[in-house]
Structures are given as C-alpha cells and as structure tokens.
Design brief:
Number of helices: 6
Order of helices and strands: EHEHEEHHEEEHEHE
Helix content: 25-40%
Length: 264
C-alpha cells in the first residue's frame, strides 16, 4: 500500500523571506525532475501570495532551469479571458513566464474561452492525459490556501470535494468570479511534490486547522491534501503560523534562509 508522508512546515519571518526560499525550492524541484526524468510537469497556483514566488523564480533562478524541458499547467482558473486581471494565467505570465525562456508550446493554460465550463474541463483533462499518461502524476503542484480552507478551487461544501474519478472539473465558487475550473483532490494527491504557500494573519486559523485538525474535506478541503507516495511542504510566514505549536514548526530551507524553529 502507498504511504502517506508526514508534511513539513517551514516558517519564515515575512512574505519576502518566504518567497525567496520557496522560489529556491521550486527551482530545485524543477531541476530534479528534469535530471531524473528528462522533463517536468508543474501545476501553478493563482492568487496574490504566489506572485512574489514567481517573480523571484524568474529574477534569481531563471537561468538555473532547463525551461525547454518544463511543461506548465494550472491547478485552477477563473472562467475569464486570459488577459483579464483576475486570470491566474495572466498573473503567472506577467510574473514568470514572460521573463524566462520557456517555449510557448510548453505552456498549457486552462481553456476559458469556451461557452461551457464543463466542456472546457473535459478538454483540459484530455490534455493532461496526453501529457501525463493514464495516471496523473505532476512533478510539482503549487497551491495557495484560502481563509475558508479551500485549495485550488475546491471549496468547502462543493461537489468537487467528493469527486474521485475526474482529474479536472468545473465548479461554482462562493465569490466571484464564480465559474472556475479546478484540479480535483485525488489529482493533487498523486503529485510527486506539493508545495502550499501561505502568508498573512488572515490565514492563521485555516493553516492551524489544516495541520492540527481532523481530515474533513467537506468543511476544510486543505486538510485532505495528503500526497500518496509524494511529499508535502507548507511554506508559511510567521503571521500565518502564529497558531501552530512548536512541534509543527520545522527548520530548514533549500536556500539556507531564515526559517526558524520554535520550541513547544
């Protein structure tokens, strides 16, 4: 039986220190996949917190990665045009993709220009099957964490929580833009690595519940992110980690940066 590994929690003083360490971790994961398999498949997160990670990845690690061997996908997307300010694709393009030498053919955005989100979800799942094979296994999935405990666009109480067969589905979010596409929890949990990036005091309760509470995907989807045969790292700043006891805080960062251990 596959093993579910214990997550690691890395705590940094602020968003800048967190972003620099996480960008170093992402670069190392991309290099490792390329060196091991010859290519890398990564699903990017949207939202404000990962933006600085993408900027640092381009600024400080852009020449370290064989971008011609990296294929970019998305964990979720708002159902808006790709140039819309709310688009996760646009955020990643501006912060990262336009600033590194990645071939356009290696960038696989979610198709939000179709009339039917359900049709778009089926189309994107078919694309993933062509690239990943019969079993979805990303080399790296990047996620943020919502204050309500959602990850990607899997929200509390959503039918997406119960989906076990599909890789990608169309969902309705509780706040706008309401129409979205998202990877499902089983797809996320088959990844080789999952990095969840969390910052700010408004995320403290959600982070504590994800790490210390029971696994309850209906009320707190983040608690169900438990990669099978993969690793999970939570990258967080002090403000978001304020409710974690010492045993949940770990020292260490690929960048040799400012992560700190707190006593119990």
């Amino acid at each position: 039986m596959a093993a579910v590994l214990t997550p690691e929690v890395r705590v940094f003083p602020d968003l800048e220190a967190l972003s620099r360490a996480a960008a170093s971790g992402v670069a190392a994961a991309l290099r490792s996949a390329v060196e091991t398999r010859g290519s890398c498949a990564v699903a990017l997160a949207g939202g404000r917190t990962p933006r600085r990670v993408y900027e640092v990845l381009a600024e400080s690690h852009g020449t370290e990665v064989r971008w011609d061997r990296v294929h970019i996908f998305w964990g979720d997307e708002r159902y808006v045009p790709p140039d819309d300010p709310q688009s996760n694709y646009r955020l990643a393009r501006e912060a990262l993709l336009d600033r590194v030498p990645i071939p356009a053919a290696n960038v696989h955005r979610m198709p939000t220009e179709r009339s039917s989100p359900a049709s778009a979800a089926r189309r994107y799942e078919a694309l993933l099957r062509r690239h990943l094979g019969p079993r979805p296994r990303f080399d790296l999935v990047l996620l943020g964490l919502g204050a309500d405990g959602h990850v990607a666009s899997v929200f509390p109480g959503s039918p997406a929580v119960a989906e076990e067969r599909r890789w990608v589905i169309a969902v309705e979010a509780p706040a706008g833009p309401r129409r979205r596409l998202t990877l499902t929890l089983p797809t996320i949990n088959r990844a080789a690595r999952v990095f969840i990036i969390v910052a700010g005091p408004q995320k403290a309760a959600a982070l504590a519940r994800a790490l210390m509470g029971p696994v309850d995907p209906w009320r707190h989807p983040a608690s169900a992110v438990r990669p099978v045969d993969g690793s999970l790292v939570w990258w967080t700043d002090e403000a978001a980690a304020a409710r974690l006891p010492g045993r949940h805080r770990h020292e260490g960062t690929p960048a040799g940066g400012a992560a700190r251990r707190r006593g119990p």
